From TrEMBL, chain A:
Residues 97-303 form the ABC transmembrane type-1 domain. It is found in: Cell membrane. CDD domains: TM_PBP2. The keyword Transport applies. It is a multi-pass membrane protein. Keywords: Cell membrane, Membrane, Transmembrane, Transmembrane helix, Transport. It comes from the Bacteria. It holds the Pfam family BPD_transp_1_N. Belongs to the binding-protein-dependent transport system permease family. This is ABC transporter permease. InterPro entries: BPD_transp_1_N, MetI-like, MetI-like_sf. The keyword Membrane applies.
TrEMBL record, chain C:
It comes from the Bacteria. Residues 28-277, 299-543 form the ABC transporter domain. InterPro entries: AAA+_ATPase, ABC_Ni/Peptide_Import, ABC_transporter-like_ATP-bd, ABC_transporter-like_CS, Oligopep_ABC_C, P-loop_NTPase. It comes from Streptomyces spinosisporus. It is a peripheral membrane protein. This is ABC transporter ATP-binding protein.
From TrEMBL, chain D:
Residues 91-281 form the ABC transmembrane type-1 domain. This is ABC transporter permease. The chain crosses the membrane at residues 30-52, 95-118, 130-149, 155-173, 212-235, 260-281. CDD domains: TM_PBP2. It is found in: Cell membrane. Keywords: Cell membrane, Membrane, Transmembrane, Transmembrane helix, Transport. InterPro entries: BP-dependent_transpt_permease, MetI-like, MetI-like_sf, OppC_N. Belongs to the binding-protein-dependent transport system permease family. It holds the Pfam family BPD_transp_1. It comes from Streptomyces spinosisporus. It is a multi-pass membrane protein. SUPFAM superfamilies: MetI-like.
C-alpha cells in the first residue's frame, strides 16, 4: 500500500516532468527559423508545394493550437508521421529503439560488470600502484571523445588487425542482430568505455566510504575474512548509490549511442534523432526527445524502485 | 582466419559470385518510396532511380549513355515526332509487356497523364505554367501511339528533356480505381505509405522495368531482383542488386575497405588514398554531375541588399574567389571552376564562350581596385563606404555612408571540403577587404532559413546561402534557368531580377536553336546573379574491378540494369 | 568448536608448564602496550606502556577520562585498530600473540576466542543484511554448520539476549529494531561462539537507563554461565560498581590505578580517581522541594502535538505536551531515549512548528510573530544542542563561533569589546584562552560542548535551552560546567530548560522536573517530590535503573530487586 | 555527454585548515600532475603564440597537408594553417569555453540548487521538477536548436554549454544545502534570531564551497569534452576560429591518409586537459574530505 502510494506519487511527478519536457521541446522546435517545408521539399520546390505541405502538416496554425493538437494525438498513442521518411513516428521508433536498446543495454551491462569489480578492487588497493594505474586509465577513457575512441578502435581492430568487422550487425530484427555477436563487440566496447570510467569511480568512492563504516569493524570482530566482508556487506551497501546514478545516465547513454551508431553504420534511434534534426523532421524529433525523456524519467524511477528493493531503509524513509 | 571469415559473412560479404552487386546509397539516406508518382518530399533522386528501374519511363532522357540524350534502350517509347509547328508531339510505344504479360498500351500513358492532370498540386514535378499546365491534351491514337498537344510552340529538345521525361506508363489494368484519377491517386499513395508492403503487395508486382523489389527493409536496405518478364532494351546484367544504406560516409568507407561494397564512393579528401583502394581491387571513377554550384545573394537583405545590387560589388566578390586553386587543392581536382549558369563538367552545346573564358578572373588587387574606385576605403581591415551616391565613382544607390562590406553566409554543414572552401573564400575575401563570416547548418536548415523574402520580413536577415556541397542545382537534361534566375522563379532565393535575363530564359525554352541558351549563359556569366563556385563531382565512385559496361549518369540517377560484371 | 575440544586444548596448554599455565588462565594478557596514530598533523601517541590482564569469568572495568585511550586498548586487543596505528608491546589472547599477526590468523581468533561489543549500536550492523543472517555469519565463520542450522542457532541466540519473538526478528533489518535491540544483536554476535573473552566498549552509553540495566544483566549472566572473561570499557561509575570485579583507571594514555572494585571505588588511592569519583552525580535519597517561582512564564507549551512524516510510518513525537518555565528556574526534562525531549525543546525554540497547540515565548505567540520582532524576541534565547559535533560550524574558529550572537544582535559593539566579552565567556566555561583560535575539529568532544555553551551564554540570555549539554563530558568536567550554569543563573536569573537523561544530574540542578514518555508528559512537579515519591510506575522504573557508584550499595539494591521480582 | 565523475554523496564536513587540505592535495600525485598539465597548456595556448607566431586568419592553399618539418613543426592542415599555431589558437577557444562554461554552469547550478534546497517546500518541488525535465531533455537537442537560431560564437558557445550543464551541480548543491540547513549550528542561529541571509552567507555557502569547487573542476572537464563533441557534430565555432574538437573532427577525415599530425595533437590535447581537470577535481575532493584521512 505504502509502496503503491509512493509509486503513484512518483508517477505523477514523472508526468509533470514529461509535460514540461513536451512544452519546452515544442516551443524550442517552433522557435527554429524558417520552418521545415523548404528544407524537406528541396530547393526545387515551388511556393505552392510549400504551402500545400504546411497546410497538410498543420504548420499554418497557431502554436498553442498545434500544441494542443499534438498533445491530443499523443494521448491517443500517436506520435504523428515523419515528414521525410514516409512512415509513422511510432513505427520508426518501434523499429529503431530496440536496436539502440540492444546497444545501450549491452554497453551498460558490460560497463557495470567491469566497473563494479574494478571500483571495488581499486578501493581495496587504495593509493597502491594498481589504483593509480586504473584511475589514470579511467580518466583517459572518460576524457577520450567517443568518436575518437571509436575511430581508434576501428582503425586498430578492423583495418589493421582484422579481428572484428567494421560494421555493427546489419540485420533488421533483434534475432539477426544477436546472431552476429562478433560484430557487436566494437560498438558495445565503444559505448561502454566511458561508462566503465564513470562508474568505477563511483564504485570506488562508495566502497571506500563503506569500508570505513562501523559495521565492517563489527564483521571483522566476528571473524569474517576481508573477502567475505567485501562481498557480503560492502558490495551491496556500495551498490545503492551507484544504482541511483544509473537513471540519470540514460541521456548520456543515448548521446553515446548516436556516435556509435554513426560510426558503426547501425541505424538506431540515435541516428534517427540525428537525421531528423538534420532534416527538420519535427514529428520524429519530438518523438525521439519524448522517448529519451520518458526513458530517463522511467530510468530514474526504476532506479528509485530498485533502491527501495535493495535498501529497505529507503522505503521506511530513513536514509 | 576463422574469425575473419565469420566477420565478413556478417557484414554482407561482397558478391564473390557475380550474381549480385552491393551498391552503397548516399550516406544518411534510406529509400522509402517506389511509386513513380508522389509528392516532392518522396520523389528525391535516389527514390526515383529505384522507381525507374521498376517502371520504365516513356522517354528516358538522361546521361546514362555517356552523354546527355535520349536513351532509347531504357525507354518505352521508340520515337517522338514533333509536329512542324512544334506545338504537338506524336509518340510511338515499343512492343512491350507488363510483367503479368499484358501489353503496355497508350491507355497506360493516358492513365499517367490523367492522374497527373487531376492531382498536379501534389505532384513532385509540378511547377505552375509548366507540365502538365502547358500540355493541353493527350490523345491515344491507337494502342501504340499517343499525341500530346501543347499550349504553344516549344523547343523540342527542351520539351523532350525537361517535360516528356516525366511521363511513365503505369499499369492501368492493375492500378485504376474505377476511372477516378483523384481516388486512384489517393489509393496508390496510401498504398505506397506502407513500406513493409513493397515486397509483398501485388500492386507493386506489375512492372515494366528490368528489376522488381525482392525485399525492402524499413531500415533502408533494398534488394532488387531481375524481372524475368522484361522485354525492353536494357536487360539486367546482374540478377540481384543490393542497395545498402549507410549512416555516414565514414561508415561507408569502412565497408569499402573491408570489401563488402562493390560500388561505393569516397570523398574528395580521400583521393590521396586512391592507391589503397586500387590495391584492394577497386577502381576510382569520379561521377560528374549536370549541375552548377553557387551562393545566392539575398538582394532584399536590408543591410547588404543594396550593396549586392551593385554589379561592381558582385564583381569584386567574384574576383576574390580563386576557383582554380580551390578546385585543384580543396577538391583535389574533383571539381571544375564554374563561371556561369551552364554546367561545365561535361561538354555541351549550351555553354557560351563568355562563360568558358571566365569574365572575372581571380585577383584580389583588381577586386580592391573595383571597390576603392567606387567610393570604398579600408578601415581597420574592412572596406567601408565613404562616398555614397549613385555617381560612377560612388558606392551606388541605397548604400549608406559608413556601410561596412561584411557579409555572412549560411553554409551547409557536414563536409570537410565545404568547410575548407569556405575558409579559403573567407581568407581571400579578407585580402580584398571584405569581411565574410560563416555560419553552418544542416542543408535542410540552410534551405529553410534562406527563402525568398522582402526586406521587412524578419526571415530576410540572411545574406548569402550555400547548399551545394554536392552541387547546388541539378538540371534536367536541358539546363534552363526558369526556376533559378527568372524574376519570381520558384527557386530564385535571392530575388534576382533582370528583364533581359527573363527574356533570354523564355526564349531558351521556346526557340528551337541553341543560340538563345548560349546568350543566356553569357549574360549571366557577366551579370553575376549569384557567386559562381566550382562545380564538384556528384560523387567519387569506387567500383570493384570488373564492374563496367556503363556510364555514370550525370543527372545523378543510377541505372542498375546497365551494370555488368565484365570479368 | 565444542566445549569438549576446548577443554582438551586447555589441558594441552596446561601440560606445557607453569608459565603457560598462567597464560592459559588469563584470557587476555597485555604487556607494555604502546599505540601511536599517524595523522596529517603528526603523530598522536594514544597509549603507552599499558599492562593489564583478564581471567576467565572475571570482569575488568577500564575507566578514565575521555580520550585517555580506553577504546584504543580495547581495539588493540583484537587487532582492530585502524590502518594508521602503530602498535608495540605484547598482547596475548587465549594464548595467541596478537601484535604482528596476520589478518587471516586473527580472523580465526575473532568471534571465537575473543569477541567485541561496540559502543554505537546504530552503525555497528550492516544496514542491508537481516540481523539473523549477520549472526549466522559469525557462527559459520567458525563452525561447520549448514545454513539452516546456523539460522536456527541465530534465533536461539536472539532468544538468549532477550529479544522478544526471535523467529520474527531474525529476519528484520537493523533499522527496524530499537537501539537497545540492536545492541542485543551485536551482543548476540559477540557470544555466538561462546568466546573466552568479551570486550565491551561502552556497550550501554547510547542507551537509556532501563535498557542499560537489562543489557548489563545479560552480560553478567554470560560471565557467570560460561566463564567468559569480560573487559568492560565505560565512563559510568554506576555500571562499574554494579558489574566489575576489578577496575583499571586510565589517564592520558596510562593506567594510573588498578585494583578490586571495592578498593578502587571506595578507597581510591590516585588523586585523579578520587577527583573522578567525587564528581559522579548521585541520586539523593532525601531532600526538600525548591520554592515555587513567581512570575509570568518565559516559555510555555500548551497542548503541543508534533507528528513527523505522513502515512503509517509517521511518528507522533509529541502528543498534547504542556509545560512551562518561569524566570530564574531550571526545569529538567527527562525520559527515555526517543520520548520526545529534544523535540519539545525544539518546539519551544520555534524551530519546529507544532501541528496543534501553541507556543509562547516571553508571553508572545511565536507562531504569529515574524521578521524583526521575532528576531528581537529570539535574541534573548541561548541554545545548546545535543550533538556537539553538529553544533559548531567547522569552518569558524572557536572565537568566531562564540562571537556570532554578538555580531547578530550587538551590531554596535567594537571588535575589542567583542574580543573581551568572548574571552570572558570562555573563561566562564573553563576553556583555556589558547583554544580561541582553534577550529572546532581540533577540540575534544567535551571542549566542543563547552564552546556551544559559551555561545549560548555570551548574550546573557533570558532563556537557556540546553539539550543534554554535558553528555560528552567526563563527570568531573560535567560537574564544573553545571555549577557554572547554576551560578550564572543565580546571577542573571535566566530561565533554563534542561534536557537530560541523567536523573541524578537533573535532581541536583533542576527545581522542577518533567518526565516524558512516548511523546506525552508522564508526570511533572517539583524535583524532589517527583523523584523521591514518583507517582507513575514509569518514573519509578527510571529511578530504579539508575546505578549507584558504590559496589556494596549496588549489590544490595540488586538483591532487593530480585526478591521484589520473585515476590 | 554531461556525465560527471562526481561522487554521489556530497563531500562531508569541510576542513577549516586550508593548509592541511593543500598538503593532502599535493600528496595526490595525479592531481598535482593534472595541475601541471593545465598550467602548461594555458601557457602554451595563451603565451605560446607570442613565441611562435603563425597566420591563423588566412588560408594558404599552396601549403596544404604538409608533414612536420623545420618550418612547420607539426605540419599544416588541409587549408594550409600551421598545425602548432592552430593548436594554440584552437586551445584558446577550447580552454576559454571550457573554463567559462564550467564556471557558468556551476554558478547557475549553485544559485538554483541552493535556493531550492534552502527555501524548500513548493518552490523546491517545482525547481527540482524543472531540473528533472532539463536532465530528461537530451542536451544534444537543445544544442541543435540553439545553434540553428544563433551563430555559435565563443560567447554564445559558453552560454549554451553553461545552460545545458548546470543541472548536475544544481542537484549536488541542493543536496548539500538540504543537509546543511538542518545542521545544528544553522538551527542555533535561527533559534537565536539570525536572519536567513546570515545563515546562507555565513554557514551554508562557506560550507558547500568544497562541493562547489569540486563540481566546478569536473564541470570544466565536461565542458571541454562537450565543446569537442559539439564541434564533431558541426555546431562548434566557425572559421577562422577553431577549437580542438573542431580540429580533431576535421582531422579524422585524414585518418586513413596517414596524416597523424592532424589527429594526434588535438586528440591528445583534449584527453590530457580533460584528464587533468578530472584529476584535479579528484584531488580536491580528497583534500576537502575529512573521511579520506590516513
Ligand atoms: N584513528 C585515529 N587517528 C588519530 N588519533 C586517534 C585515532 N583514534 C583515536 N585517536 C586518539 O587517541 C587517543 C585515545 O582515543 P580513544 O578513542 O582510545 O579514547 P577513549 O579513552 O576511548 O575516549 P572516550 O571515552 O571519549 O571514548 C585520543 O586522543 C584520540 O584523539
Ligand atoms: N526530524 C524527524 N523526523 C522524523 N522523526 C523524528 C524527527 N525528529 C525526531 N523524530 C522522532 O521523534 C521521536 C522523539 O525524538 P526526540 O529526538 O525528541 O527524542 P529524545 O527524547 O530527545 O531522545 P534522545 O534521548 O535519544 O535524544 C523519536 O521517535 C524520533 O525518532
Ligand atoms: Mg572510546
Ligand atoms: Mg534528544
Amino acid at each position: 500500500m505504502e509502496t503503491l502510494l509512493y509509486l503513484l506519487r512518483r508517477a505523477l511527478q514523472a508526468l509533470v516532468v514529461i509535460l514540461i519536457v513536451t512544452v519546452v521541446v515544442f516551443c524550442l522546435l517552433h522557435a527554429l527559423p524558417g520552418g521545415p517545408a523548404r528544407g524537406i521539399l528541396g530547393p526545387q520546390a515551388t511556393a505552392q508545394q510549400i504551402a500545400a505541405f504546411n497546410h497538410e502538416q498543420g504548420l499554418d496554425r497557431s502554436l498553442p493550437v498545434q500544441y494542443v493538437y499534438y498533445l491530443r494525438t499523443l494521448l491517443h498513442g500517436d506520435l504523428g508521421t515523419s515528414y521525410t521518411l514516409n512512415e509513422g513516428v511510432s513505427q520508426l521508433i518501434g523499429q529503431r529503439l530496440p536496436k539502440t536498446l540492444v546497444l545501450t543495454v549491452l554497453s551498460a551491462l558490460v560497463g557495470l560488470l567491469l566497473a563494479i569489480p574494478l571500483g571495488m578492487w581499486q578501493a581495496v588497493r587504495r593509493n597502491k600502484p594498481a589504483d593509480y594505474v586504473i584511475t589514470t586509465l579511467s580518466f583517459v577513457a572518460y576524457s577520450t571523445p567517443v568518436y575518437f575512441l571509436g575511430l581508434i578502435l576501428v582503425l586498430v581492430f578492423t583495418q589493421t588487425l582484422h579481428w572484428f568487422p567494421s560494421q555493427a550487425p546489419q540485420g533488421d530484427t533483434l534475432a539477426q542482430v544477436f546472431a552476429d555477436p562478433v560484430a557487436l563487440v566494437l560498438p558495445v566496447v565503444t559505448g561502454a568505455a566511458s561508462m566503465v570510467a564513470v562508474f568505477s569511480r563511483y564504485m570506488r568512492a562508495a566502497t571506500l566510504e563503506n569500508l570505513s563504516e562501523d559495521y565492517v569493524r563489527t564483521a571483522r570482530a566476528g571473524g569474517s575474512r576481508q573477502g567475505a566482508i567485501l562481498f557480503r556487506h560492502v558490495f551491496r551497501n556500495s551498490l545503492t548509490p551507484v544504482i541511483a546514478m544509473l537513471g540519470y545516465y540514460v541521456p548520456v547513454l543515448f548521446g553515446g549511442a548516436l556516435v556509435v551508431e554513426q560510426l558503426f553504420n547501425y541505424p538506431g534511434m540515435g541516428l534517427l534523432f540525428w537525421s531528423a534534426a538534420q532534416s527538420s523532421d519535427y514529428p520524429v524529433l519530438l518523438g525521439c526527445v519524448l522517448v529519451i525523456s520518458v526513458a530517463t524519467v522511467v530510468g530514474t524511477l526504476l532506479a528509485d524502485v530498485v533502491q527501495r528493493v535493495v535498501d529497505p531503509r529507503v522505503k521506511a524513509g530513513r536514509t | 582466419a576463422l574469425l575473419l571469415a565469420g566477420c565478413s559473412g556478417s557484414t554482407g560479404s561482397s558478391s564473390a559470385s557475380k550474381d549480385s552487386i552491393n551498391y552503397a546509397l548516399p550516406a544518411n539516406f534510406t529509400p522509402n518510396w517506389i511509386l513513380p508518382i508522389g509528392t516532392a518530399a518522396h520523389l528525391n533522386t535516389n527514390n526515383s532511380s529505384i522507381s525507374h528501374t521498376l517502371w520504365e519511363p516513356l522517354v528516358a532522357y538522361d546521361g546514362s549513355t555517356g552523354k546527355i540524350g535520349w536513351n532509347k534502350a531504357g525507354s518505352i517509347a521508340t520515337a517522338a515526332d514533333f509536329a512542324a509547328d512544334n506545338k504537338s508531339v506524336k509518340i510511338t510505344l515499343g512492343d512491350r509487356h507488363w510483367s503479368d504479360g499484358k501489353p503496355i498500351t497508350s491507355q497506360d500513358v493516358k492513365f499517367w497523364f490523367d492522374l497527373i492532370k487531376a492531382n498536379k498540386k501534389q505532384w513532385a514535378g509540378y511547377s505552375p505554367g509548366q507540365a502538365p499546365d502547358n500540355w493541353t491534351s493527350l490523345k491515344a491514337d491507337d494502342d501504340r501511339h499517343v499525341t500530346l498537344t501543347f499550349d504553344k510552340a516549344y523547343n523540342p529538345q527542351w520539351m523532350l528533356a525537361n517535360e516528356l521525361q516525366y511521363i511513365i506508363p503505369l499499369p492501368k489494368h492493375a492500378w485504376d480505381q474505377g476511372g477516378d484519377p483523384v481516388k486512384t491517386w489517393t489509393y496508390l499513395n496510401n498504398a505506397a505509405k506502407n513500406i513493409g508492403g513493397y515486397a509483398s503487395n501485388p500492386l507493386w508486382k506489375t512492372i515494366s522495368g528490368p528489376y522488381g523489389v525482392k525485399s525492402f527493409s524499413t531500415a533502408g536496405k533494398v534488394v532488387l531482383a531481375a524481372n524475368k518478364k522484361y522485354d525492353g532494351g536494357e536487360k539486367p546484367g546482374i540478377p540481384t542488386v543490393n542497395l545498402l544504406p549507410f549512416t555516414t560516409t565514414d561508415a561507408e568507407k569502412n565497408a569499402l575497405r573491408s570489401g563488402s561494397v562493390d560500388y561505393g564512393y569516397i570523398e574528395a579528401t580521400d583521393l590521396d588514398q586512391k592507391e589503397s583502394f586500387t590495391a584492394r581491387g577497386y577502381e576510382v571513377k569520379p561521377w560528374s554531375g549536370w549541375a552548377i554550384t553557387y551562393m545566392p545573394y539575398n538582394f532584399n537583405n536590408p543591410s547588404m541588399g543594396p550593396v549586392f545590387k551593385q554589379l561592381y560589388a558582385r564583381q569584386a566578390i567574384q574576383r576574390s574567389i580563386d576557383q582554380t586553386t580551390i578546385a585543384k587543392v580543396v577538391f583535389s581536382g574533383t571539381a571544375v571552376p564554374g563561371y556561369g549558369p551552364i554546367p561545365t563538367g561535361q561538354a555541351s552545346a549550351f555553354v557560351s564562350q563568355t562563360q568558358k573564358d571566365n569574365p572575372y578572373p581571380f585577383s584580389t588587387s583588381a577586386a580592391r581596385a573595383l571597390l576603392t574606385s567606387h567610393g570604398w576605403s579600408e578601415q581597420s581591415g574592412v572596406m567601408t563606404c565613404t562616398r555614397p551616391g549613385s555617381g560612377a565613382s560612388q558606392c551606388g544607390d541605397g548604400v549608406a555612408k559608413g556601410t561596412k562590406f561584411q557579409m555572412q553566409v549560411l553554409s551547409q554543414s557536414g563536409s570537410a571540403v565545404t568547410d575548407n572552401m569556405m575558409s579559403a573564400i573567407q581568407s581571400s575575401l579578407a585580402k580584398t577587404g571584405i569581411k565574410f563570416s560563416i555560419k553552418t547548418a544542416p542543408v535542410n536548415s540552410v534551405l529553410s532559413q534562406t527563402p525568398q523574402c522582402t526586406a521587412s520580413q524578419s526571415i530576410c536577415k540572411w545574406q548569402l546561402s550555400f547548399f551545394g556541397t554536392a552541387g547546388s542545382w541539378y538540371f534536367p537534361a536541358f539546363p534552363t534557368g526558369d526556376a533559378l534566375f527568372q524574376s519570381k522563379g520558384g527557386s530564385n532565393f535571392g530575388n534576382y531580377s533582370d528583364a533581359k535575363v527573363d527574356q533570354l530564359i523564355s526564349a531558351s525554352t521556346t526557340s528551337s536553336s541553341n543560340q538563345a541558351i548560349q546568350d543566356y549563359s553569357a549574360s549571366l556569366a557577366k551579370d553575376l546573379p549569384v557567386i559562381w563556385l566550382p562545380e564538384p563531382d556528384y560523387q567519387i565512385s569506387v567500383m570493384k574491378k570488373g564492374l563496367g559496361g556503363f556510364a555514370q549518369d550525370s543527372l545523378a540517377n543510377f541505372h542498375p540494369a546497365q551494370w555488368k560484371w565484365t570479368s | 568448536m565444542s566445549g569438549a575440544e576446548k577443554d582438551a586444548e586447555a589441558e594441552a596448554a596446561a601440560e606445557v608448564g607453569t608459565a603457560a599455565e598462567t597464560a592459559a588462565e588469563r584470557v587476555l594478557e597485555v604487556e607494555g602496550l604502546g599505540v601511536t596514530f599517524g595523522t596529517d598533523t603528526g603523530d598522536v601517541p594514544a597509549v603507552c606502556d599499558i599492562a593489564l590482564h583478564v581471567q576467565p569469568g572475571e570482569t575488568l572495568a577500564l575507566v578514565g577520562e575521555s580520550g585517555s585511550g580506553k577504546s584504543t586498548v580495547a581495539l588493540a586487543a583484537l587487532g582492530l585498530l585502524p590502518g594508521n596505528a602503530r602498535v608495540s608491546g605484547r598482547i596475548t589472547v587465549g594464548g595467541t600473540q596478537v601484535v604482528g599477526t596476520g589478518e587471516a590468523e586473527l580472523a580465526r581468533l575473532r568471534g571465537r576466542t575473543a569477541s567485541m561489543v561496540f559502543q554505537e549500536p546504530a552503525t555497528a550492523l550492516d544496514p542491508l543484511t537481516r540481523v539473523g543472517a549477520q549472526i549466522a555469519e559469525v557462527i559459520r565463520n567458525h563452525r561447520p554448520l549448514s545454513r539452516a542450522e546456523a539460522a536456527r542457532e541465530a534465533v536461539e541466540l536472539l532468544r538468549r539476549v532477550g529479544i522478544p519473538e526471535p523467529e520474527r526478528r531474525a529476519s528484520a533489518f537493523p533499522f527496524q529494531l530499537s537501539g537497545g535491540q540492536r545492541q542485543r544483536v551485536v551482543i548476540a554476535m559477540a557470544i555466538a561462539n561462546s568466546p573466552d573473552l568479551l570486550i565491551a566498549d561502552e556497550p550501554t552509553t547510547a542507551l537509556d537507563v532501563t535498557v542499560q540495566a537489562e543489557i548489563l544483566d545479560l552480560l553478567r549472566g554470560l560471565a557467570a554461565d560460561y566463564g567468559t572473561g569480560v573487559l568492560l570499557v565505560t565512563h559510568n561509575m554506576g555500571v562499574v560498581a554494579d558489574f566489575a570485579d576489578r577496575v583499571a583507571v586510565m589517564l592520558r594514555g596510562e593506567i594510573v590505578e588498578t585494583g578490586p572494585v571495592e578498593q578502587v571505588l571506595l578507597r581510591p588511592s590516585h588523586e585523579y580517581t578520587q577527583r573522578l569519583l567525587a564528581a559522579v552525580p548521585r541520586l539523593a535519597l532525601s531532600g526538600e522541594d525548591a520554592p515555587e517561582r513567581e512570575g509570568a512564564s518565559v516559555v510555555e507549551l500548551r497542548d503541543v502535538s508534533v507528528r513527523f512524516g505522513r502515512g503509517p510510518s509517521a511518528v507522533q513525537a509529541l502528543d498534547g505536551v504542556t509545560l512551562d518555565v518561569r524566570p530564574g528556574e531550571t526545569v529538567g526534562l527527562v525520559g527515555e531515549s526517543g520520548s520526545g525531549k529534544s523535540t519539545a525543546a525544539r518546539v519551544a525554540l520555534g524551530l519546529i512548528p507544532p501541528d496543534a497547540g501553541t507556543v509562547s515565548l516571553f508571553g508572545t505567540d511565536l507562531g504569529r510573530t515574524r521578521g524583526r520582532r521575532r528576531r528581537a524576541l529570539l535574541s534573548g534565547v541561548g541554545v545548546v544542542f545535543q550533538d556537539p559535533v553538529a553544533s559548531l560550524d567547522a569552518r569558524m574558529s572557536v572565537a568566531e563561533c562564540v562571537a556570532e550572537p554578538l555580531r547578530m544582535h550587538r551590531r554596535g559593539m567594537s571588535s575589542a569589546d567583542r574580543r573581551a566579552r568572548v574571552a570572558e565567556v570562555l573563561e566562564l566555561v573553563r576553556l583555556p584562552k589558547e583554544l580561541a583560535a582553534r577550529g572546532p575539529r581540533e577540540l575534544s568532544g567535551g571542549q566542543r560542548q563547552r564552546v556551544s555553551l559559551a555561545r549560548s551564554l555570551v548574550l546573557e540570555p533570558r532563556l537557556l535551552v540546553a539539550d543534554e549539554p554535558t553528555s560528552a563530558l567526563d563527570v568531573s568536567v560535567q560537574r564544573t560546567v553545571l555549577e557554572v550554569i547554576a551560578e550564572l543563573q543565580r546571577e542573571l536569573g535566566f530561565a533554563c530548560l534542561f534536557v537530560s537523561h541523567d536523573l541524578a544530574v537533573v535532581q541536583e540542578f533542576a527545581q522542577r522536573v518533567v518526565v516524558m514518555r512516548a511523546g506525552r508528559v508522564e508526570e511533572q512537579g517539583p524535583t524532589m517530590s517527583t523523584l523521591l515519591r514518583p507517582r507513575s510506575d514509569y518514573t519509578r522504573r527510571l529511578i530504579a535503573a539508575v546505578p549507584v557508584p558504590d559496589p556494596v550499595v549496588q549489590r544490595r539494591r540488586r538483591a532487593q530487586e530480585r526478591t521484589e521480582a520473585t515476590a | 555527454m554531461s556525465a560527471v565523475l562526481q561522487s554521489t554523496t556530497p563531500t562531508a564536513e569541510p576542513v577549516a585548515n586550508y593548509r592541511l587540505s593543500l598538503r593532502r592535495f599535493t600528496r595526490n600525485k595525479l592531481a598535482v600532475a593534472g595541475l601541471v598539465v593545465v598550467v602548461v597548456f594555458l601557457l602554451f595556448c595563451f603565451v605560446g603564440p607570442l613565441l611562435y607566431s603563425t597566420d591563423q586568419t588566412h588560408t594558404d592553399l599552396h601549403q596544404v597537408n604538409l608533414g612536420p618539418s623545420g618550418a612547420h613543426w607539426l605540419g599544416t592542415d588541409a587549408v594550409g594553417h600551421d598545425e602548432v599555431g592552430r593548436l594554440m589558437f584552437g586551445g584558446q577557444v577550447s580552454l576559454l569555453v571550457g573554463l567559462a562554461a564550467g564556471v557558468l554552469a556551476t554558478v547557475i547550478g549553485t544559485l538554483w540548487g541552493a535556493t531550492a534546497g534552502y527555501v524548500g517546500g513548493w518552490a523546491d518541488a517545482v525547481m527540482m521538477r524543472v531540473v528533472d525535465a532539463g536532465i530528461a531533455i537530451p542536451a544534444l537537442f537543445i544544442l541543435l536548436v540553439v545553434s540553428a537560431i544563433t551563430t555559435p560564437d565563443t560567447l554564445g558557445l559558453i552560454l549554451v554549454l553553461g545552460l545545458v550543464s548546470w543541472l548536475v551541480p544544481s542537484r549536488l548543491v541542493r543536496a548539500e544545502t538540504l543537509t546543511l540547513k538542518s545542521r545544528d549550528y544553522v538551527l542555533t542561529l535561527r533559534a537565536t534570531g539570525g536572519t536567513h541571509g546570515r545563515a546562507i552567507a555565513r554557514h551554508i555557502l562557506p560550507n558547500s564551497v568544497s562541493t562547489i569547487v569540486v563540481a566546478a573542476t569536473f564541470q570544466v572537464a565536461d565542458a571541454i569534452l562537450l565543446v569537442a563533441y559539439v564541434s564533431y557534430l558541426g555546431l562548434g565555432v566557425q572559421p577562422p576560429k577553431t577549437d580542438w574538437g573542431g580540429m580533431l573532427s576535421a582531422g579524422l577525415t585524414a585518418a586513413y591518409s596517414g596524416r597523424w599530425w592532424l589527429i594526434v595533437p588535438p586528440g591528445l590535447a583534449i584527453i590530457l586537459v580533460v584528464c587533468a581537470f578530472n584529476a584535479i577535481g579528484d584531488g580536491l575532493r580528497d583534500a576537502f574530505d575529512v573521511r579520506g584521512r590516513g
